[in-house]
Amino acid sequence: MQHVCSAVDIVLRQKPKIGGILNLLNSFNIDPNQSYLVVHPRYAEVAKNAIDAAIIGGYHYDYLDRQKLPSLTVHGIYIYLGGIKPKRTVKQILEKLSKDGWLNKTELSAHEAKELIAAKQPQSLLCGQLVCEWCKAKTLILDRHHYPVPKSKGGDKIVNICPNCHQEFHQLIRTACYHPSEKLIQFFRSVII
Ligand SMILES: [Zn+2]
Ligand SMILES: [Zn+2]
Fold it and tell me: Model's pTM, two decimal places?
């Protein structure tokens, strides 16, 4: 479960692993057995409200925890926030953070989407005998998909891919991903929790 608490600017997410954080939680009189990410007061430089803080906090947590920053979609952020705001609002916030240079918005080309999909771990069906040209999974069904040029643009080359790859491809090329910009990473480095 996730909460956003604007009064103390604390985002509830996962168990903290950062030194000194428990003392800080105690000072807020918060149960240290719960899962929290404390949002630094300097977040006000980026976050104009609790939802911004929650989004930035999520990216910051990943940065501190794994130094690996995810690319997230509107839908991904919406799920992460526990559906507390409509997707429309989430999208507006992500667009604003992008406009202000904190996030980079990328849209994948057909080639980039295909490369991502082909790098998946294939999950084969026990009784499938057909092989997906992209992920190499054994499957019962192969879809005929126009690639690299869509049929609507006159493409006549076909690939035979599993329904998973096919669905994911069409989803990926119409979905924008947002990931932290160099400016936001510099900000994370300057904020010590
Ligand atoms: Zn496949
Ligand atoms: Zn297709």
Answer: 0.63
